[in-house]
Write a structure and sequence with these properties.
The chain contains 10 helices and 21 strands. By secondary structure, it is an alpha/beta fold. The protein has a 13-stranded mixed sheet with strand order 7-8-9-10-11-12-13-14-15-16-18-20-21. A two-stranded antiparallel ribbon has the order 1-4. It starts with a strand and ends in a 22-residue tail after the last strand.
Length: about 575
């Protein structure tokens, strides 16, 4: 006897070691099989009930005549059928159609997040697994000391004596990680989501986790190698530390605290009003990822006190800057990860005490030349992952106290000569990876850097122009201003068929404080004799991060005769 049977199949549970979770699949199949123990059989009473009535086609003893329809069919079916059917003997035989092919199996489950969205404990567990392996030795998590110390570490209150033991690193890392702010984003990078770019910088667990992925080799993305031996690991590991390595950081106040640190330390003072959290004596407003748009944000901001100092509005759906004019005590505005398309010159005119302005990862194509004019106390300007083609030459003319300028991943082709004039307090300047899609890294060349552009940057410590078409480091660009420069990143120049990077004679002589130099995947070679005057130099990267993807041993080295 054959009976219909449904079978339930649960696919194998899959654990993702850097995902902190388990994925599973579920499928239901319909098949026909012989009766077996546990299957549902047709009872004798059901057989009788289902027996064909006399006179029907299936009653061999019945008489020939008109075929009637079973009364058990739904009325919706009966209504569409003629009241009588043709005589049975005149009906042509109908071939039974073959059964349809079975449906394809369900695709394997896709599990993108590294841990439950709001579970910082598990995210930190996964983070520290990688931090103490891929980035082993970069920082002593117990004492907060660094194998390659920068002035920034000492200024930021880092330890001076490394006394932590290897077996103590994980717990110390985890405790440190739990002290970072964790914005509500999947920790594992997903390059199909534009919000990923917004977490490439900033003092957060999100930023550090993203750079840990860069350092360890991101799955399905050909960047570096899944090991700590790649040049890219050496470059990115400093960004996952408590200090953040100039990238996963922010402007620090006189107590060496960033706004995310202040917020995290005040977490047990949080209370929610409308779509925003208030904390730290109501000086910090967290309105991030609340689906705020141009039509709803003003009403929600009514709950925010006039004397608020920091406001997090990132990861919303704003296309323009909301009215912030009554918040005259604001020190930090975070508007990254929105959909801003344009500015008005007076968008921040009333926020004259502003120190931090983050406008990264929007759709802005032009900056008004006087946008920053009222912001004479501005210390940090983050404008990454936008679409501007030029920086107005007067944009920073009144922000002479600014310390951090980051313009990564726009569509810049160069700067005018006086763009950074008078910025004697600037410590970080980053403008790498210009161009979009197929043009990324190809539109900004050495021609976009006029001689004298950096002459006033006498405090600069970190200089970055990675993934660009800058094929030469000119000796004429450097001078007295570069005496304090500690880190210079110009890696990933040779991403296409271009000649190797050229470093002119005399460049290193004008970098007496240099600690870290990265020009990997640029085709150039650096010899010890080139840097004899750089006594502080600890990190020199000039190989190709992709060479390590070649399996070893190479076929030419394989000796089959010994096998």
């Amino acid at each position: 006897m054959k009976v219909a049977r449904f079978s339930l199949t649960i696919s194998t549970l899959t654990y993702f070691p850097f995902g902190g979770g388990i994925a599973h699949g579920l499928s239901v199949t319909n098949s026909t099989s012989s009766a077996s123990p546990g299957s549902t059989l047709t009872t004798e009473s059901e057989k009788t009930k289902n027996k064909a009535p006399k006179g029907s086609k299936n009653d061999k003893k019945g008489k020939k005549g008109k075929t009637s329809l079973p009364s058990s069919l739904p009325s919706s079916v009966l209504s569409d059928v003629p009241s009588s059917l043709p005589e049975e003997e005149t009906m042509a035989p109908v071939a039974t159609p073959p059964p349809p092919p079975p449906p394809p199996p369900p695709p394997p489950p896709v599990f993108r997040s590294a841990a439950p969205l709001y579970n910082q404990y598990d995210v930190c567990t996964d983070f520290c697994k990688g931090a103490i392996t891929t980035c082993e030795g970069v920082v002593d998590w117990v004492t907060n000391t660094y194998a390659t110390p920068f002035s920034r570490h000492i200024d930021g209150g880092a330890g001076t004596d490394a006394t932590g033991k290897p077996e103590k690193q994980f717990d110390a890392c985890h405790n440190t990680c739990m002290g970072w702010v964790y914005w509500r984003q999947d920790a594992q990078p997903d390059f199909t989501k534009r919000f990923f770019n917004g977490y490439a910088i900033g003092d957060s667990l999100n930023c550090r986790y993203n750079h840990l992925q860069f350092a360890s080799g991101i799955p399905s993305f050909p960047y570096g190698l899944a090991a700590s031996e790649s040049e890219s690991a050496t470059q990115h590991c400093p960004h996952i530390t408590p200090d953040g390595g100039w990238v996963c950081t922010d402007y620090r106040d006189s107590d060496n605290k960033t706004p995310p640190q202040l917020y995290k330390e005040a977490v047990f003072t949080k209370h929610r009003v409308g779509d925003c959290w208030l904390a730290a004596d109501d000086k910090i407003a967290d309105c991030h990822r609340k689906a705020l748009n141009d039509g709803t944000v003003d009403q929600q901001l009514l709950w925010v006190p006039d004397d608020i100092e920091y406001i997090f509005l990132h990861a919303n759906a704003l296309t323009k800057v909301p009215n912030l004019s009554r918040f005259t005590e604001l020190k930090g505005i975070y508007l990254e990860n929105n959909a801003l398309t344009m500015f008005e010159s007076d968008d921040f005119a009333s926020n004259t005490k502003l120190e931090i302005l983050n406008l990264s990862n929007n759709f802005i194509t032009e900056i008004p030349a006087d946008l920053l004019a009222p912001l004479t106390d501005l210390k940090a300007f983050f404008f990454n992952f936008n679409y501007i083609t030029a920086v107005p030459v007067t944009l920073f003319s009144t922000t002479t106290n600014i310390e951090l300028i980051s313009l990564v991943d726009n569509k810049l082709t160069g700067f005018e000569a006086d763009t950074f004039a008078g910025l004697g307090s600037l410590k970080l300047l980053a403008f790498g990876q210009q161009g979009k899609a197929l043009d990324r890294g190809k539109i900004f060349s050495a021609d976009g850097i006029p001689d004298g552009l950096f002459d006033d940057l006498v405090s600069l410590e970190y200089f970055s122009t990675f993934v660009n078409g800058v094929g030469v480091l000119k000796e004429s660009w450097f001078g007295a201003w570069s005496a304090n420069l500690e880190a210079l990143a110009i890696f990933l120049y040779q991403t296409g068929p271009v000649p190797p990077l050229v470093i002119e004679d005399g460049v290193f002589d004008k970098l007496p404080s240099l600690i870290d130099f990265a020009s990997y995947t640029s085709g150039n070679i650096i010899n010890p004799g080139d840097v004899t005057n750089n006594s502080n130099l600890l990190t020199v990267l000039y190989g190709s991060q992709f060479d390590m993807n070649v399996p070893l041993p190479e076929p030419a080295l394989y000796n089959a005769a010994l096998i």
